[in-house]
Each structure stands twice: as C-alpha cells, then as structure tokens.
Automatic annotation (TrEMBL):
Record-given protein name: NHL repeat containing protein
InterPro entries (alphabetical): 6-blade_b-propeller_TolB-like, NHL_repeat, TRIM-NHL_E3_ligases
Entry-linked Gene3D superfamilies: 2.40.10.500, TolB, C-terminal domain
NHL repeat placement: 407-438
Transmembrane segments: 5-27
UniProt keyword terms in alphabetical order: Membrane, Repeat, Transmembrane, Transmembrane helix
Pfam families: NHL
UniProt source species: Adineta steineri
GO MF entries: zinc ion binding
Region (Disordered): 32-54, 80-123
SUPFAM superfamilies, per the entry: Calcium-dependent phosphotriesterase, NHL repeat
Amino acid sequence: MRKRVIFSIIVAILIIIAVAIALTVVLTRRSSTIEQTTTTSTGSPDSTSLRTTTTTTTAIATTTSAGVLGSTSTGITTTTTTTTTTTTTTTTTTTSTSTSTTTTTTTTTTSTTTTTTTTTTTTTTTTTTTTTKLIFINNTNPKWTSEGYTFAGGNSYGQALNQLYYPRSIFIVDNDPQSIYIADTNNHRIVEWKYNASNGQVVAGGNGRGNRIDQLSDPTDVFVDQKNDSLIICDQGNRRIIRWFLQNQTDPQIIISNISCGGLAVDNNGDLYVSDYNKNEVRRWSIEDINSTIVAGGNGKGQELNQLNYPTRIFVDRDYSVYVSDAENYRVMKWIKDAEEGIIVAGSRGGGTSLDKMYMTNGVIVDHLDNVYVSDMANNRVIRWAKGSQEGSIIVGGNGSGNQSNQFIGPRGLSFDQQGNLFVVDMYNSRVQKFNIDIV
C-alpha cells in the first residue's frame, strides 16, 4: 500500500514536469514569434514617406503699341514684364517601430516635422515711351504715284460732314492706318475720317468759333496722345494749346496759354515742342516742369542762322534735333540739341521756283535717312531734299495750281503711313490727297 502511494506521487511529479516542459516550449516559441514581429516599413503612407512637390510658373508678356503724335511725331510704348518664378519643396518622413515580449509591449513613433522652402524671384517691369516718329522708306530713292486720290473732303468747302473748310494739318495713327485726324481749320473742329468713308466724324470742337472750353478757333495742328486717349490741339485763334479727351469731350484742358502756335511736335521723352510765329521761336515744355526752354530762334525776326521768320510746322528726330519750316525765309532749318544757331537743310535765302528754292514752306517731315520732305506751298508741290543736297526733287505736284488729281492749291500738312504712302493736305481744295508709294 505504501509502495502504491509513492508510485502515484512519482507519476504525478512526472506529469507536472512534462506539462511544465510543454508550457515552456510553447511560451518560448510564442516569444520568438513576437520578437520577430517588429515592423519597419519604408515607402508606405503609414510608415516612412518622402514627398517632393515642385511648382514653377513663368509668364512673359510683351506689349508694344505705336501711334503717331501729330503729322510729324508718334508715340510708341513698349512694356516687357517677366513674372515671378516660385519653387516649393515639401519633405515629410515618419518611422514607426513596435516591439513585444511575453509580458511587455513597447511602441515607439518618430515623426519629422514638415519642412517647406519657398524661393521667389521677381524681375522689374520697364516701360519706355517713345514719341518721335521714325519714318522708314524701303529704298534711297522711292517714288510715289503722280496722281493722288481724295481720301477726305473734296466736295468743295463747307461745314457738312462730307466737307472740309481749308484744313491745315493731319495726323495718322500708326496702329490704325485706316483713319486720319484732320485739323479742319475754318470749321473750327477736328475731324476723324476713316478709309473709304464718305463722311467724317467730329471728335473735337464743332460748336462754332469761340473761346469757350468746348469751342475751338482756327485749329491748325493736332496729334493724338494715345497714352491719355486724348488730342493735343493747336487752338491758334484762341492762342492756346488744349487737350481734348476722346472719351470725355465735355472736359477739355488748357495746357499752354498766350502762344501763337504754328505747329506741334513731341520728342522721345514726351516733351512738347511748339512753334510761336509771333515770337519767331520754338519752345520745349518738359513733362516734369511747367517752365519752357527755347530750342530754336528766339533772337528776333530775321534771316540769320540764329533767327526765324514766321515758323510754322516742326519735326523732332530721335536725336532731339528740331526741324523748323521757316516759312517767310523760304527754308527749313535744323537745330541740333543745345545749338545756338541752325543749319539750312532745305531751300535758301530768297524764294523762287527753281529746285534750289521754295516759296512759303509749310509741312515738314524727315525720314530715317535724314531726307527732308517739305510742302512748297506757293509753288503747289512737295519737294524732297536729300541729306547734304543743294537742291530738291519734286515728288508730287508741281503741275500748276488746280484741283486735278496731280495738282494742289496751297499744300500744307504732310504725313506718311506705315507703308510709306504720302498724305497731303490740299488746303484751298478743302481735301486730303493720298499718293501711294510706287514699289518697284
């Protein structure tokens, strides 16, 4: 009996040992499995991620507009803008690690803060305003058709919209060659006339002759200030220069008073030049200063090289030289910037009909080769004087006084369009004639 009890105890102990061994094996394997379950993943949104975003925006805009300022000057505005380039880089990194043992579980999470770097580069915007008309003719000896056709007026003189009354000057907008602006002098108005139109449109004045702010009196010259959408008018009878806004015609502004204006021009800086036929001088008004400076004449009436005698139309080139139609000296003078006297570039002392002389000069324009084109008013012709030449050559007219297509009666203002076609104000025929350039 005692032996049986001892045997049972031994068996029980063995069973307990076996169970303990089995449990130990199981627990050991489980611990090993858990230890091997530590997670490290790269490249997934839940563990480690690297994201780089780069955005680049570049825009370049260039705008060029060109417009004639008066029959002898133009406005060209060029604006170049290079906009901002922006680069943005974003980096995000996240790492997660989990470790578990039989009795303890530890979780560790490491996160890096998002870093954003932004670099911005912006260029400046430069605006250049050019107001001198550069007239480019395709060859050194161009020709024009001998017979012109009537672009505006030509229905005798009168005040109807299909008529002009002794016009003096014209202005052509380079970027709109299908219309011209006319100083319709004896109708006391400025008229816009479009290509092939039978009538003109009044854009300034037209309210009878007078000195009210909404009236003009014998306007003799005009150009368009495209930047301000306005006309600059030589209101000769009222002895003033007036700005007439095209969109708000009820609010004109007097720019200069007490001046006997014969002609207008504008230079590269936007400075205004005005000839004064009573004071026999040309003055420049700076856009930054209300004071004026004498740039030609100003030494009394006379025929010396430092004098003028009834200056009318003027032209300013890209070098700020001023060309003056010195009407009663029968010549055109060139005054280089800051010069004390001028140079005769067309005509001579004393009027006449030969090619080395002119009689009552008026309209004047200059091309890029420094050829000078002049309305020889009393000789009813337009003459070109090559640079350094002692005589001119007739390019249109010169066929006596008359109203035929190859004739004038008192030619005044001149202008070229972008193609080189010539426009002539035929004053006493109350019309504007166009002569097409003869392309060979």
